[in-house]
What does this fold into?
Amino acid sequence: MVQRDGPAEDGLQSRTMERPTGNKGDAHPALEIRGLRFAHASEPRRRSFELTLPALTLARGEEMLLVGRSGCGKSTLLQLIAGLLDPSAGTILVGGTEINTLRGAARDRFRGREIGMVFQTFHLLTGFTARENVLAALLMADAPTADRPQRAENLLRSLGLEDLDARVEELSVGQQQRVAIARALACRPTLVLADEPTASLDPENSVNALRVLRDACREQGAALLVVSHDPAVEPHFARVERLGAAASTRGEVAA
It folds into this structure.
């Protein structure tokens, strides 16, 4: 593998290594961003915020780490990609579909089928079992009813979960994260977004969590975009982009 240093696309500051990507046979990349701009009006005692990103592409099956200081807009960018926020200008395509042209239930269904999300605090359904959490994701994405039970069981067992009928609040943090990863991959998404996935873990568990997440995405053929402000995460990724170089921001937001 050949390491490349320096500008990548449109002045993005990156460290990448050439690596094979997914082989789903689709000409469209997993993620393509063009001329993105997002701004929200200032609020009392809060600075206005603007994020601009000229271009960013993630091939199918590719992994990328996006790093940047807290407040620079990393989480905002993930929400834009997932269609939870609408851009002020520009286009965001996931698997060739411009997600922000979809409305209402159509956008929700597309997100459920094509985008998996792993949150910093997991956002699992408390009071429900590991199995039920994955089944809920399959239900929301309109996966075929007959396929849901076996798909949920296969995913959870492939990630090392043994007691699939334990309530998630009874599981360890590491086990909860595996449930979150299984839920994100349940519908065989084109793209998985992970927001600070190691923030609540100690160093040893952080390394293991990253390995599980990356291995699971590779096995399912999903592209993976991770955002983090932890420099210890960087050595685990062949491609690293810095939001400060990839995008220009004004103001502060939670990230």
Remarks:
- The chain has one domain: 3-19+29-250.
- The two ends are 32 Å apart (CA to CA).
